[in-house]
Write a structure and sequence with these properties.
alpha+beta, five-stranded antiparallel β-sheet, Heat Shock Protein 90, globular, 4 helices
Length: about 150
């Protein structure tokens, strides 16, 4: 199961989240993805894009570039922005009990994205934040013969 890259570029604006969701739905269609995996991929991507929208371009707007492709049983998503340098792989795991005690809203998005995906790597290149995530699709794995 290999699918060539598809891409989408959107302004870093909140109303573009629906367009990002449609892009994911279109590209996941026809793949052996369970409802749960579809939800996990969508939630991970949306959380990262929301962080870009809210924090990458303070006082201005920029672009979010998404690329989607498959290699074997894995779905890959690359998310790029030219906002402030930020490495989401370097954030600490939140203390969930402390956040609940403080009744603090937020602080879970990056953590959730890392936990839902099987791969989560970051690099800064040509003034861009580049996040690569991947998810192994369970139904795409060959059945074991016993």
């Amino acid at each position: 199961m290999n699918r060539a890259a598809a891409s989408l570029e959107v302004p870093s604006e909140l109303h573009e989240i629906d367009r990002i969701r449609r892009f994911l739905k279109k590209n996941l269609k026809g793949l052996p993805v369970s409802e749960e995996e579809h939800y996990q991929i969508e939630l991970a991507v949306v959380e990262i894009c929301l962080n870009i929208i809210h924090y990458a371009y303070p006082g201005t707007k920029g672009q979010i570039c998404l690329s989607f492709w498959t290699e074997g049983p894995e779905v890959y998503l690359e998310i790029r922005d030219s906002g402030l340098p930020f490495d989401p792989t370097s954030t600490r795991t939140p203390d969930l009990e402390e956040l609940m005690r403080q009744q603090k809203v937020g602080g879970f998005g990056i953590y959730i994205s890392r936990e839902l995906m099987d791969g989560f790597t970051y690099r800064r290149e040509n003034e861009q934040n580049i996040l690569l995530m991947h998810k192994r699709l369970a139904k795409a794995e060959p059945e074991s013969s016993v």
